[in-house]
Amino acid sequence: MGHTGVRHAIVTGGGTGIGRAAAAALTAAGMRVTVLGRRAAPLRDAIAAGDAAHAETADVADQTGLEAALSRATVAHGPALVLVNAAGVAESAPFLKADAALWDRALRVNLLGTVAATRAVLPGMLDAGWGRVVNVASTAALRGYAYVTAYAAAKHAVLGLTRSLALEVATRGVTVNAVCPGFTDTDIVAESVARIVAKTGRTEDDARAELAKHNPQGRLVTPAEVAATIAFLCSDAAAAVNGRALAVDGGEVP
Ligand SMILES: NC(=O)c1ccc[n+]([C@@H]2O[C@H](COP(=O)([O-])OP(=O)(O)OC[C@H]3O[C@@H](n4cnc5c(N)ncnc54)[C@H](OP(=O)(O)O)[C@@H]3O)[C@@H](O)[C@H]2O)c1
Predict the structure, then answer these.
(1) Residue nearest to atom 14 of ligand 1 (CA)
(2) For the chain, what are the domain ranges?
(3) What pLDDT was estimated at residue 48?
(4) Per-residue pLDDT tens for 183-240?
(5) By C-alpha distance, which of 2, 1, 38, 46 is closest to 20?
(6) Is residue 13 in contact with ligand 1, taking CB distance under 6 Å?
(7) Are 82 and 9 in contact (CB under 8 A)?
């Protein structure tokens, strides 16, 4: 049933962090992986390291540019049967200091970027009768955290999208799921640590420990741990897992 042969997978935000680890895991699972992001250098690194086969630079918040990039990737490697939406930004600010521009960025990239990439790629999955969409949400899609209202609102919205689209395509061989990482050791966390150091004068180690404290395991999650869950959701074996939010958080969210 469905598609056979080498599957083309697209990973947005695939040059760094969780997206990069997901690209590596899907490549290791035998897929042909396209990584997409705004900066060319990390994408080139991913290819040089053998974690991806193809790269496209695009901003997921620019729908026209994104669609052009995804269609170039499709021409090169065939319709994408796997889409991992990992592109995201996590700006923090107290609610009364989070202005309209910050809200706009949070929603445009984290939510509407996921919508636009999915709209572009889903028709090919429906045609093939097989597809996997995995949205990298966050524990901030399942609970709140102070100082990230816009990010948490966008990630909660990604879950609403995930759960509803999953039901819409359930009979078509396509699954739509989310992974919800806790604090994970990537550039996003490095930026949060830098902000905490700048604002509070704490040491970098203290700031990292503060974030690690959220995790009952007392540590940051690794990108490879999130990627392993993503790769499972993208496998044939996960065909019955649909519309789920899988937390990869050491047990933080009950
Ligand atoms: N680290 C955590 O603690 C954590 C926890 C839960 C969820 N997450 C989520 O995990 C995802 C990946 O983040 P990460 O932690 O791996 O951090 P990261 O290394 O900063 O990854 C984010 C990636 O998204 C790309 N990106 C950002 N804005 C983009 C845009 N407008 N268009 C295209 N690409 C864009 C970035 O590349 P360019 O800058 O080159 O575009 C970068 O490669 C995000 O959705 C984040 O919200 C992270």
Answers:
(1) 17
(2) 8-182+222-245, 183-220
(3) 98
(4) 999 999 999 899 889 989 999 999 999 999 999 999 999 999 999 999 999 999 999 9
(5) 46
(6) yes
(7) yes
Read off the pLDDT of each residue in 91-101 and give the average, rounded to a whole number.
Answer: 97
Which residue has the least CA distance to atom 2 on ligand 1? 184
Whether 84 is in the pocket of ligand 1, judged by its Cβ within 6 Å, is: no
Q: Is 191 in the pocket of ligand 1 (CB under 6 A)?
A: no
Query: Which residue, judged by its Cα, is nearest atom 42 of ligand 1?
Result: 13
Q: How does the average pLDDT of the chain come out, rounded?
A: 97
Asked if residue 230 has its Cβ within 6 Å of ligand 1, the reply is no
Q: At which residue do the structure tokens 């990069």 appear? A: 20
CA–CA gap between residue 183 and residue 191 (Å, rounded): 12
Please work out, in degrees rounded to the nearest 5, the angle formed at the alpha carbon of residue 243 by the alpha carbons of 132 and 112: 75
pLDDT at 4: 58
Global pTM? 0.97
CB of 187 within 6 A of ligand 1: the answer is yes
Q: Are 141 and 245 in contact (CB under 8 A)?
A: yes
pLDDT of residue 2: 43
Q: In the annotation, is 145 catalytic?
A: no
Percent of the chain residues topping a pLDDT of 90: 96
Six token digits for residue 63 = 């729908």
Using the atom order of ligand 1, give the atom closest to the CA of residue 183.
Answer: 3
Domain 8-182+222-245 has CATH 3.40.50.720: yes
